[in-house]
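[job 4417] fold queue: 2 targets
>>> target A
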Amino acid sequence: MQLTDIKTAYFLGIGGIGMSALARYMHSKGILVSGYDKTKTPLTELLEQEGIPIHYEPNPSSISSAIDVVVYTPAVPSDFAEWEAIEKLKIQTVKRSAMLSIVVNSLPLIAVAGTHGKTTVSAMIAHCFEYIHQPFLGFVGGVLGKYNTNVFVHRNAKWAVAEADEYDRSFLALRPFISVINAIDADHLDIYGSATALQDSFSEFAAQTSPQGQLLVCSDIDRSKLTLPQNHILFGIDTSEGYSANNVRIENGKFVFDISLNDSKLFNSLPIPIAGRHNVRNAVAAFAALHLAGFDPKQIAEALQTYPGVKRRLELIAKSKNIVYFDDYAHHPTEIEALLETIRSLYPEKTITGIFQPHLFSRTRDFGVDFARVLSKFDIPIVSDIYPAREKAIAGIDAQWLLNQIDNEQKQYIAFENIGKIDVANMNGVLLTIGAGDIDNHIETLKNRILSL
């Protein structure tokens, strides 16, 4: 299938971050785009404002023979009410990953993979392309604050950058010129079944990097778990091989570091506007990818210093006399631990309250011990109801099950609908809302209440 063959496209699950980016891209190309999603969100409302019709209840009568292609996400269940009408009309169906590959594989592609950090790294690269005025196509797994979008479309694009999602092995549809593997921690075990199967999939992704290009691999990864091609190079913190951030420190509230390649200095004292050692590592990955693409180190460094951040990635929401409130998308134990370490480094004397909405019953079950271990480190850990996403409930796995494993006398449960009503008037320190579900629906309420104190 070619994009030029498509006049009308229908998206099942259009509110997903990757789906919405593709929908926006096709809409920008003059294709008539519409879609379904089960939940109205600020992102779907934005799509509607941009002229893309969306409905929120299954409506088989909305499916017509005028639709050239249905783009779908694997999160849409097989018994979804509109599938029968789609099959009856013999409309061509294409997975999101396959449609993304049609768009980006024709250009030199920088594909960013990893169980953590891929959204931030791909967003940093997209921002740098914008700053450098390099025409490109960009598909990012989050909304960049300054641009208020997750897709970038330039005429005469010379590069593409895309987040390479390991869920459902979607990233295997991509053919990168430069690729990044940021982390391979066990995740999506509902799909892969085992950590080994997940690692094998990353090895397949690595093998798809062009022999003329380069694969960047985080030095923290146990490379014995992967099969890597010859054209790979490392990146990380305080590593003597590959791209490295050295002399990492905090100056005036910002993380600052030097960057080198094989012990040869490329840039001194690079401050980045987002906090955390994990974000230093993310910045090194973005710097390395752009340097390998041929861009000047000074130009890249200047661009990274102006990185605007992604919504829901350590996003500062509100600050009052007594409370500093951040929101973060973290939904894996490793991500929550990195988040907590970052906040502790910035606010070592403050009480840290974390409200966590677990994402998926299966992930909560599979990593319950690790979630409990990390959440126990908060001064006040609060657990809310599990966001089911694509899943049905699993007997015995709920917020109370997780809460019971947390070793902290200050632990609490809060019903999801009551998150916005939490007692901020008597709170002191740092407040975090954490999770990949719909906990962000409470952000505005909490923000307004904190700012009114």
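>>> target B
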Amino acid sequence: MHNLSKKKLIIKLTESLEAKEEKVDLFTLFGAWEDNKDSDEIIKEIRESRIEKAENPGFE
């Protein structure tokens, strides 16, 4: 490895260590899902949308 490549690598590693951590406000993650259905209705829809798999699928 050439000296210039080593220097560039050292600089990048040093910068990554000095980078400030961004704090994420947890409350900004809430509210993405909006729905007027209650949990029982949602569970019912999920169960009704399931597809039965074949008992013994063959690989012929």
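[job 4417] complete. Note on B: The first helix runs from residue 3 to 18.
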